[in-house]
Specification:
globular; AhpD-like; 4CMD/NDH-1_regulator; Carboxymuconolactone decarboxylase family protein; peroxiredoxin activity; mainly alpha; CMD-like; single chain
């Protein structure tokens, strides 16, 4: 995918950022509920409260969740939150370039091997959206 296509994909996939990336995203809530209704309700309430804290903006919180996924190696497999967190970051105004820079930064602190898997999954996410 060329750099131009990356930008087009990001521009086409973005809508207005949510005030609360969990409580305002009904599609996310439906996905959590489809895993298990009690799990979905619990995640929505608890994560919604955390995402509602006022001092850190939604885009930064979304990028932090991706960094946590790198450390926890939560980018592949059934129920993996990585794709949801990438989409959440894009929704909040992050670009693919910013996410890639975050993954490079995480190489230093989490390890190159952990970030490598995330780069591969990030490519899969963008390639599936073409």
């Amino acid at each position: 995918m060329s750099q131009t296509n990356h930008i087009t994909l990001e521009q086409n996939s973005k809508t207005a950022p949510y005030k609360n990336a969990v409580l305002d995203d009904l599609k996310l809530q439906q996905a959590l509920n489809s895993i298990n209704p009690k799990f979905g309700d619990f995640c929505t309430r608890v994560a919604g409260e955390a995402w509602g804290l006022p001092l850190i903006d939604q885009k930064t919180k979304a990028l932090i969740t991706i960094a946590i996924d790198v450390v926890n190696q939560d980018q592949v497999g059934s129920g993996s939150p990585f794709a949801a967190h990438v989409n959440m970051a894009l929704q909040q105004g992050a670009t693919r370039a910013e996410i890639e820079e975050l993954l490079l930064f995480m190489c230093v602190y989490a390890g190159f091997n952990k970030a490598a898997g995330c780069f591969g999954t990030l490519n899969d996410i963008f390639n599936s959206n073409q």
